[in-house]
Amino acid sequence: MIVMGIGIMIMQPKQQQQQQQQQQQQQQQQQQQQQQQQQQRQQQQQQQQQQQQQQQQQQQQQQQQQQQQQQQQQQQQQQQQQQQQQQQQQQTSREVNKGKFESRNSFLGKFFY
Predict the structure, then answer these.
(1) I need a labelling partner for 86 at 20 to 30 A (CA). Which of 11, 77, 103, 111 fits?
(2) How far apart are CA 50 and CA 42, in angstroms?
(3) CA dihedral of 34, 38, 39, 42, whole degrees rounded to 10
């Protein structure tokens, strides 16, 4: 009877140990799952950050394109202004030449008459 009692007593702690080990394993599994979830969240955050970076890069590219277009427009405006200046210079030179020619004619006319 005593031996049987001792045997039962010895068996109970083993069962408790096994249960504790199982609980520890379950806790470890839960921790691993939590870690995996955290890793997945981190990966999602990284993906979101990458997407944001890509969007920012696209916006920067668009801004650069807009700046280039503005520069081109400015260049075109400058060219137009230069053309207008050239046309004005041509007109003024023609008017000056006309004036000289008319004054010569009037002088020669007076001299001959």
Answers:
(1) 103
(2) 12
(3) 170
CA dihedral (42, 43, 48, 54) positive or negative: positive
Q: Is residue 110 part of a domain?
A: no
The pTM (predicted TM-score) of the whole model is 0.42
Distance of CA 87 to the CA centre of its chain: 44
Which domain range does residue 93 map to?
Answer: 80-105
Cα torsion for 103, 106, 112, 113, to the nearest 10°?
Answer: -160
44 falls within a domain:
no
Classify residue 24: in a domain, yes or no. Answer: no
> Which residue bears the tokens 């030179």?
93
- Residue 1, H or E segment: none
Tokens 């008459």 — which residue?
113
**Tokens read off for 76:** 């075109």
Q: What is the pLDDT of residues 48-85, one digit of tens each?
A: 999 999 999 999 999 999 999 999 999 999 999 999 88
Amino acid at 58: Q
Is there a domain that residue 99 lies in?
yes
For the chain, give the number of residues.
Answer: 113
Token pair for 22 = 């199982």
